Here is the input.
Amino acid sequence: MPEMSNHAPGSFCWAEVGTVGAAKSKAFYSELLGWKFDDRPAGDFGVYSIGQLRGRDICGMYELSPEMKKQGVPPHWMSYIAVKDADATCKRVSELGGTVIQGPFDVMDVGRMAVLADPTGAHFSIWGAKTHKGSGILGEPGAPCWFELATKGLDKAEAFYMKLFGWSLKKGNDGGVAYYEITNPGAPYPMGGMMELRKEHGPVPPHWTVYFMTNDVDGDASRAKRLGGQVFAPPMDIPRVGRFSVLADPAGASFAIFKLAETPTKPGKK
Here is the structure.
């Protein structure tokens, strides 16, 4: 996929990890995904670290504040969706049964954002870009390549996101498991998926997972463990699609890695 300079409204445009022990997290992602970090002042927020590949911004990282820790916010990855108007989108979210957790608010001169929850409880953020457009590379090794919702109430989530962003969904049901591929209007390929949480997932709340492209799922899963991370789901194949593994960094924030099959179709389907 080519380098990105803009992101169409309704497309995933950024991902960031809120962490504890940012220095350790930086070392982990630098070794695992090849990022270099650019620390930038963020006003009252402190320091915001940008993970970069080839000099292009990829993802963000920040240290969870004492207040967030007191509230019980765990280390986590957050998925961002581009919008034209953050304020109008927040109003629409409320009308559709979602929740505005925080915002909308300005992030200095770089953009306007809000933290939201869909009707099933999965959190995501929206980004109205100003000087910072979002991820400069997608779909290449080390960069985000897929965004996936695991939820309790797939039909409710489908209705919410389709009305909010105009997404189209391709519904599959391989092996009796429903999986919906998400495509933004006008996009030539899907950017993510939705699936229902099942008993085998355990007591996991609805959530979005960020997938990062890799050239070696098995090797990177082993390396993540050596670097102090965890392997939540060992490397496994998605027939005719690719191979993936679900990991967590040393602070406990979960994410996934993915490699396309020899003859690729579409990533993310389980």
